[in-house]
Amino acid sequence: MVAIACLLNSNKANRSVDNREVDDLNIQEKFWKIIGKLSTKLTLGAFGQSFEVSAEEQIIPGLQLGEQLDFLEAKLKSQISNLDGKSLYILIDKVDEIWDDDISSCHMVVGLLMAVKDINTKFENVRCIVFLRSDIYDQLQFFDKDKLRGDEESILWTQETLPELILARARISTMNHQMSLDDFLSVYFPSRIKGIAASKFILSHTLMRPRDAIQLCNLCTDLARRESLEVISEECVLKALDVYSSWKLNDLIGEYTINYPFLNDLLILFSNTSYVIPRKRIKLIYGRVEEILKDRYPDYIPSLYIDSILNILYGVGFLGIERNRSTFYYYENPGTVEVSDKFFVIHPAFRYALKSTSSVNIQPYHSDSDVRQQSRYLSEITRRRSPVRNTFERSRSGSKELTRWIRRFNQLLVSLKAVRELPSEVLSEIGQELSEIASEFEMLMDSKRIDRDQLQLNIVGANRYLLDLSTNLENNGYININSTVSYQIREIIEMSGDIRDVFYYDW
Questions:
Q1: In sequence order, which residues have a C-beta less than 8 Å from that of residue 5 and are 6 or more positions away?
Q2: What are the tens digits of pLDDT across the range 171-226?
Q3: Disulfide check for 245: which of 69, 194, 285, 352 has CB 3.0–4.6 Å away?
């Protein structure tokens, strides 16, 4: 019923009024290939009632189509009226699987939509519903599109509604239909993952689509079972993210392979980099391959300019936009990239697959890395130094200098928060690193005796991190060399020399 009506509606835009000939034969050819695979017998059954419509002769395309439709429509109306007032729902999904982003596909989908509207009008107790991706629907341009506005319904999942769907699946799996969302999370998941509430962490790694959340939860469950765990641990979730992230990246490329066949080549540019990326850096790295992509995909040149690329990556959900210290993704804020948008964020779902797990792309602070340890051991062996560590009781002068130095890290963080250009995720990561540095030195301060060598390692590690931080912030345009932050970083590094002097010479 839907298929034949779809053909008629799709032909309306292509039929000549004078001779009623079809201009685009590809549509009919594609349609009859589909129809040829179907049985010539149609059986409709619902609520214990059924009827059958059969054709003894093979359908002749075009010639008898009108007569066949009239017969079929009349037969359907008479039989559907016998459903005792019950409603029949026809749900049509996976339209994107026949979508080729060409004129024939457009006409087929337009025909489908108009046929559905026609069916819903002619049959009172029949409701036909089409599930269609918004990016495909937005591409469709046809004369009667305004007539469908009243029938459109956007399905938008939020932080509040998506967990309810997860809970519904969990109730079915556990056969516990009284279980609440809090019960489910507290029993089967750790309360926090990387310091974030479990539900929030899981949802942040989805594109706010049910299948994403279900896939990630199932992966976590399967991994816990393989490791004979009764509950899902934080480690299970983090391990599952590696597999899940690869799935999502491949799914994204596959989902948009028709519209954007260059997407795979494009996403390679974002591997092994920071997940917060300034616009000027994207422009720089894309500029290196822009002409190559244009030569490789000549039919898509209008889409291969930097502004179009940014809109595509935002529209498919790969990139978010940083505005006023908040990150927005397309499913939260449908629209386009604005000229004033300076910073972009790779969605958490894709970071593990791309190995882009740091917002600033610098080595985190380490006070005792393997490289530094091996270097120290080699030096001590060469100098035939005793393995006995040098420790000293705290002196008032040393404690005072160290306290002042630690305080400088807190002041630096305050200054960073005042930098309007600094994205929230970058600020958060830097804040964690600075807090860790300060915490390690405070632990040394709390000791009755201080290992001078350990103190030296901590100072070297802190200075290395600060130098890398200053260079990265300046290169990405977050700060300039004359800024307050740059000055404070230089001051902290200079003060570290005074601390070494106190501990090495005064004691």
A1: 69, 111, 115, 118, 119
A2: 888 888 888 888 888 888 888 998 888 888 999 999 998 889 989 989 998 999 99
A3: 352
Decide: 126 and 120 in contact? Cβ < 8 Å: yes
Cβ–Cβ contacts within 10 Å for residue 466, how many?
22
Three state DSSP letters for 407-473: HHHHHHHHHHHCCCCCCHHHHHHHHHHHHHHHHHHHHHHHCCEEEHHHHHHHHHHHHHHHHHHHHHH
Say what the pTM is. 0.72
SS (H, E, C) 205-259: CCCCCHHHHHHHHHHHHHHHHHCCCCCCCHHHHHHHHHHHHHHHHHHHHHHCCCC
Q: Which of 333, 326, 281 is nearest to 420 (CA)?
A: 326
How far separated are the first and last CA of the chain, in Å rounded?
93
The whole-chain average pLDDT of the chain stands at 79
Strand 343-346 relative to strand 326-328, pairing: unpaired
Please provide the DSSP assignment of 21-85 as one string. Answer: -BS-HHHHHHHHHHHHTS-SEEEEEETTEEEEEE-SSPP-TTTTHHHHHHHHHHHHHHHHTTSTT
Residue entry with tokens 């934080």: 234
pLDDT at res. 296: 95
The CB density around residue 191, as the number of other CB atoms within 10 Å, is 9
Side-chain half-sphere CA neighbours of 40 within 13 A? 8
User: What's the token pair of residue 507?
Assistant: 């004691």
Residue 42, phi then psi, degrees to nearest 5: -110, 125
Integer Cα distance of 377 and 387 in angstroms: 10
List the beta bridge partners of residue 450.
392
Spatial distance between the Cα atoms of 106 and 143, rounded to a whole number of angstroms:
13
Beta strand pairing call for 49-54 and 196-197? unpaired
Report the DSSP pairing between strands 343-346 and 391-393.
Answer: unpaired
Task: Report which of residues 23 and 329 the model is more confident about.
Answer: 329
Classify residue 251 by burial, with Cβ atoms within 10 Å: 0-12, 13-18, 19+: middle
What is the Cα–Cα distance from 441 to 445, expressed in whole angstroms? 6
